[in-house]
Design brief:
The protein has helices at residues 20-35, 41-53, 57-60, 76-88, 92-113, 122-135, and strands at 2-5, 9-12. With 141 residues, it is mainly alpha-helical. A hairpin with a 3-residue loop joins strand 1 (2-5) and strand 2 (9-12). It starts with a strand and ends in a 6-residue tail after the last helix.
C-alpha cells in the first residue's frame, strides 16, 4: 500500500515510522509469547531489544510474524482433565462441617458418659478459625 506524501512521492506503509505505543504493544505480545512458552528467554531478549530499536514498520512486523495474534485456547482434552480434577476434590465446606459435627457428637457423648457434666466445646473455636482461614474470606482483600 503506497501513501502519497508531499510532492507526489509515494511512501510505502512498511517505511513509515512507528510510535512508542506500537513498540510497547509488540513488546507486550512478545512477553505473552514468552509466558506461553513460544519463545526462549534469549530469543525474547533479542526480539524485545529489536522492538525498542525499531524505527519503521519494516523493522517491527517481522518480530511477531511467527506468533499467533491471540493466545490459543486450551485444547478440549486438557479442559476436560482440569474439570475432572476440580470435581474430584470434595467441597471444603462440607468436609469442614463433617469434622465439626463429629467433634460435637463426641463432646455430647462425653458429657452424657460423665454424668451430665458438659465438656467444653473447645474444638469449635479451633474449627471456626480454621474454617474462616480456609474459606479465603478472612484476612484477604
Amino acid at each position: 500500500m503506497a501513501l502519497q506524501r508531499g510532492e507526489g512521492a509515494a511512501v510505502d506503509r512498511q517505511d513509515m515510522r512507528v510510535s512508542d505505543a506500537e513498540r510497547q504493544e509488540v513488546a507486550e505480545r512478545l512477553r505473552t509469547a514468552l509466558g506461553e512458552g513460544r519463545l526462549e528467554l534469549d530469543e525474547y531478549d533479542q526480539r524485545v531489544q529489536s522492538a525498542y530499536q525499531a524505527k519503521t514498520y519494516r523493522d517491527l512486523v517481522p518480530l511477531t510474524a511467527d506468533l499467533p495474534d491471540v493466545p490459543m485456547p486450551m485444547p478440549p482434552v486438557q479442559a476436560r482433565v482440569r474439570e475432572q480434577q476440580r470435581s474430584a476434590h470434595p467441597n471444603r465446606t462440607v468436609a469442614l462441617l463433617s469434622v465439626v459435627f463429629v467433634f460435637i457428637g463426641l463432646s455430647v457423648l462425653l458429657s452424657v458418659a460423665s454424668g451430665g457434666v458438659l465438656v467444653p466445646f473447645w474444638p469449635l473455636f479451633i474449627f471456626g478459625f480454621w474454617g474462616l482461614a480456609r474459606s479465603g474470606r478472612y484476612g484477604r482483600r
